[in-house]
Fold each of these.
Amino acid sequence: MLPFLLLSHRPEDEAAHAEHHSFRRIMGLRSEELVQVRMNLEQPELDFADYSGIILGGGPFNNTDMRKSVVQRQVEAYVTPIVSRVVAEDFPFLGACYGIGVVGSVVGATISRVFGEKPACITASLTPEGARDPLLAGMPALFDTLVGHVEAVETLPNEATCLVNGTDCPVQMFKVGSNVYATQFHPELELRTFIQRLQIYADNGYYEPYEYDAIVAGAAAANLETDNLILRNFRDLYAR
């Protein structure tokens, strides 16, 4: 089997390694079957023919940041042409959190801070189109999932199809073409990884310190395994 590619930009080693482990474990892949490129450290030339599909993980960068570091600008300059090519070729792709902003920007969505969400477990719902989509096969109409973001899709262009809705953030997942997907939520997160991220990014303004216990309690009470099916479906649909 050709490996899948995970594009990461988390600068913290602990967070980057945990992200790779979470995606790999939930997708049921061996280490060599999920190649990680940490774009803040390396920016190799990619040959899509070497991979079954591409995953773009989340992180502290936002498309709408007013002030961007040199590293952030370098990452954006590297990943945007990749995603543009993904869309043009309809290459198997799943972008999580940061990925929804990158794909959205490429296809002409409006990305803003209107629908930001603090770290939390939410209940998401399939749209009629989502209920028919192969990547969401087996998913219930309502499911628990984890979010935490300052920007989101405000409006989608006609060429994109919304697959999952949320209450406070309407576009939780969309699709372009037949094989390009993006989620606002994190289908790779488990409770312990979520707690780790809360701690790593405690000073990034995502939540107030006094909110920590309630956020963890809400996540602990939820079923965080249902959305894992999305990643396994991605593996089964595109492994080659």
Note: The first strand starts at residue 4 and ends at 8.
Amino acid sequence: MNKTKMRYILDEIAKMFPDAHCELNHRNPFELTIAVLLSAQCTDETVNRVTATLFEKYNKPQDYLNVPLEELENDIRRIGLFRNKAANIQKLSRILIDKYEGEVPASHEGLTELPGVGRKTANVVMSNAFDVPAIAVDTHVERVSKRLAVAKPDDSVLEVEKKLMKLVPREEWTLTHHRLIFFGRYHCKAQSPKCEICPLLDICPEGKRRMKKAPVTKRGGAVS
């Protein structure tokens, strides 16, 4: 993949999703950190339903420590891996109070030291809460990057991130992250990508393979 082809991809996706943005509801860096932590292996839609009441009950780190773990678990029970996530939220809250005066650290290193906060979460918080350019590689970004041959099929998440960082201008990292997510979530879906109407089909190896296999006709009707 070269920068010219990447530019074409970015421009086409920009036409499709000009208003792409973070879909996790939050009012501050702390709420965003909690929301992204909860979103692992869970849809943003489900997270937003849970945090609608969660963020009314808990406003700051101390609030999460003022309740028994079982109560917090019950509050996020609709979220996958809720027990593990509840434990991480309390551990994270304790560290924020003890080490950062209750504030979310505005550094990648500080964020990734927090329980339940990996590189992806840290990138989301840095870019959306602190306006530091970053590309967070979630399942959508990874899938789209590999289908479009921006990255190799066996590349790690970190390798995908590094390749995108080289190909995309730094000032566009955050917006590209959002647009790739929208493209993967609403167009280039995991199970049923819309290859037949995709403006990138001509340069997409995966799309071309899928279209060759696509419609076979049986008894006069199209069967996919």
Note: The mean pLDDT is 93.
